[in-house]
Sequence to fold (284 residues):
Amino acid sequence: MNTAIHGKEEAFHDDWALRTPVDQICVRECFEAPTAVENRYILSVMGPLAGKRILDIGSGLGESSVYFARMGARVTMIDISPQMIEKAKEVGRYHGVELEGRPGIGEDLPVGDAVFDIVYIANTIHHVTNRRQLFYEMRRVLKPDGWFFSFDPLAYNPAINLYRRMANQVRTEDERPLHRSDVAMAREYFEDVQCRMFWIATLALFFKYYLLDHLHPNDDRYWKRILRETAPSLWWWKPLLAADSVLTRVPGLRWWAWNVVMSGRKREEDIGCGPRRSYVRVLP
Fold:
């Protein structure tokens, strides 16, 4: 494990947590905003969450953990940043729920075997250097027939790659977006692996922020700002969302999407944690 990278990630996210007021953290919007297309899709396939045990890896400021807890789930948070864990617990109390959480890294999860019904990991895999070990750990902590759900940026869109170079002060320098090989790796550890892409034409919203609103990517995290958009403000964007429902089905082109959602199941008979063979199905 790369302790130097882990140290930088921890320091960056500690500082972010300390600088973020609780009342500015969007919980409902992360799953219900018109632009929260990844989480809206994940919720549609997760099913009822009441009584489920969920592990939120890379829980950050706690938006997802709080949302799941408000839906009746029992949530455990893991994050490399101790300050993020404390901030997320504070966000939970602000919204009337108690959360369990502890510092840790995805490659060595500080929880037992076969404990969780669901592993949720959002915008985190691209921060992890040893992704094979991460998948190993995710499968280890899932109950038989448990599911993981993730979403992360892909590496192929030139506009997003330009944005990432410009937004060098609001992200960590060692993060790496996902490649096809990362998606394929998931099939070695999980059954029924599926992926769904989001944001191609709809990335015009980023161009609006830069060209019309004159917001530099270092002045405002675009991927957070989108959650403050409302249906009336997105009247021009909705046709692009409809276009993406087609573009993200086109072989080859779909890999130019900004984000990919993945999901996969731990087989009931899987009691070991080594890699296994399966397949990846790209959803329409």
In short: The beta strands are 53-57, 74-79, 100-103, 116-122, 142-153, 191-198, 259-265, 280-282.
